[in-house]
Amino acid sequence: MSNHAWLERSRAAVWHPCTQMKRHESLPIVPIASADGVWLTDFDGKRYLDGVSSWWVNLFGHGHPRIKQAIRDQLDRLEHVMLAGFTHRPVVELSERLAKLSGLGHAFYGSDGASATEIALKMSFHYWKNSGQPGKTRFVSLENSYHGETVGALAVTDVPLFSSTYADLLKPGLRAPSPDARQAAAGETAADVARRAAQSLENLLAKHGAEIAAVIVEPLVQGAAGMAMHDPIYLSELRRLCDHYQVHLIADEIAVGFGRTGSFFAYQQAGIVPDFLCLSKGITGGFLPLSCVLTRDDIYQAFYHDDVARGFLHSHSYTGNALACAAALAVLDIFEQENVLEANRAKAEDFTRLMAPLRQHPAVRHFRQRGMIWAFDVDTPRADFALAYFSAMLKRGCLLRPIGKTVYFMPPYILSRDEMAGLVEASLDALDEVLASGQSLTGDPTALP
Ligand SMILES: *Cc1c(COP(=O)(O)O)cnc(C)c1O
């Protein structure tokens, strides 16, 4: 069956995520038949370089043999067993290894990022209740934050396009300024911006600290905001303030964990440890849905009691799925045995050099990079930039999904130099095409997250 037949059937039967489906009258859905490495192949045989790791999850590209083998091996032993009252080898080993990597001794599992956010928020809230401080019920999130789209997670997400429709469902929280380095005035550094944002947060905590359970942040890079990057000093300030005002620090590393920013966890670049750490996306290398919240042993202890209701009575049917945990263990093996962080450091430097012509392009603003993330803003009046650029890149055999007027690369770590060079060339070419032509599709600038 051809692309066309599959896309028609998909349009008729599948409700696609984060999409105004009417858009697909003019913008074709791309049916993917198979994938290998950084390449996706459609039903007509056309290939696309996956420049965003399929929404940031396919860390090592598609079909990585070690992850495939680990799932196969596990499949022959145990695919799943409920985790209430039962346990199994992959979930124990994964929890032990994540504890060693993070310094946070207990792991609680979910199936997607938004549930990890929900778990961390509920645990923090419940901890304060169990600890005789039931007044600490509110959460602080940052401007332009993104922590998922379930009702609890959406309340700490600052993307009005996603949240304003549901405002009546959401418990209002407090919002602190983003430390986004793009706000630097002339002569200011990213660290100056970070200190200013931390000062505003301090004012908020000084006033409301007694009512606040936790501050939730995306360490170093606010992804869905358009790869807004900040100086690590913000995180060390945040740690200091959370300690001082007795507020939990929730690090949402769903997007930035697993080496994406250059260190295994992003918060490590600030020399801190959070109270809760949310992980998902890259955790299984894009093979199976899994998320995890790690926390300190003393927080775990506050739930340990004869009273059942003091326990954390939260669950998902697939909690700790054995196949997903086996995939995650394979991901950790790859990191250890293939020296991924070190290899990425050299790659990132090389790729940044390859991007010099993009950085120097007259329409490019705020070119930025951290680890294996690159982003830049495009100075264009086109409100439909994201869609137009996405289409122009598809035509050139590349998958990039700009956020508003921000173009970013979040490639699989296995991307080769030649593949990156090709991606950069296509990006430049597409940029000139989109800037030269007029508006063709009607749309708002934030339509392609
Ligand atoms: C993607 C993401 C989430 C939500 O994860 P889902 O699996 O899509 O629910 C939460 N926080 C951050 C930082 C993310 O990037």
TrEMBL record:
PTM-bearing positions, type N6-(pyridoxal phosphate)lysine: K281
What is a single cellular component term in the Gene Ontology annotation?
A: cytoplasm
Quick one: which residues bind pyridoxal 5'-phosphate?
G113, A114, D252, H316, S317
Sorted alphabetically, which Pfam families does this protein's record hold?
Aminotran_3
Residues the record annotates as the site (Participates in the substrate recognition with KAPA and in a stacking interaction with the adenine ring of SAM) are: C18
Q: What is its main location?
A: cytoplasm
Single annotated GO MF? pyridoxal phosphate binding
PROSITE patterns tied to this protein: AA_TRANSFER_CLASS_3 (PS00600)
Tell me which cofactor or cofactors this protein depends on. pyridoxal 5'-phosphate
CDD domains for the chain: OAT_like
**Ligand binding (substrate):** W55, Y146, K281, S315, R401
Q: What EC number(s) has UniProt assigned to this enzyme? A: 2.6.1.62
| Residue ranges crossing the lipid bilayer per the database entry | none
Which Gene3D superfamilies does this UniProt record tie to the protein? Aspartate Aminotransferase, domain 1, Type I PLP-dependent aspartate aminotransferase-like (Major domain)
Q: Which reaction does it catalyse?
A: (8S)-8-amino-7-oxononanoate + S-adenosyl-L-methionine = S-adenosyl-4-methylsulfanyl-2-oxobutanoate + (7R,8S)-7,8-diammoniononanoate
Localized where? Answer: Cytoplasm
Arranged from A to Z, the UniProt key words for this protein are: Aminotransferase, Biotin biosynthesis, Cytoplasm, Pyridoxal phosphate, S-adenosyl-L-methionine, Transferase
What pathway is this protein a component of?
Cofactor biosynthesis; biotin biosynthesis; 7,8-diaminononanoate from 8-amino-7-oxononanoate (SAM route): step 1/1
Which InterPro entries does the entry mention? Aminotrans_3, Aminotrans_3_PPA_site, BioA, PyrdxlP-dep_Trfase, PyrdxlP-dep_Trfase_major, PyrdxlP-dep_Trfase_small
Task: Respond yes or no to whether keyword Protein biosynthesis is given for this record.
Answer: no
- Report the PANTHER family cross-referenced here: ADENOSYLMETHIONINE-8-AMINO-7-OXONONANOATE AMINOTRANSFERASE
What is known about its subunit structure? Homodimer.
Instruction: Tell me which family the UniProt entry assigns to this protein.
Output: Belongs to the class-III pyridoxal-phosphate-dependent aminotransferase family. BioA subfamily.
Q: Protein name, please? A: Adenosylmethionine-8-amino-7-oxononanoate aminotransferase
Please state the gene responsible for encoding this protein: bioA
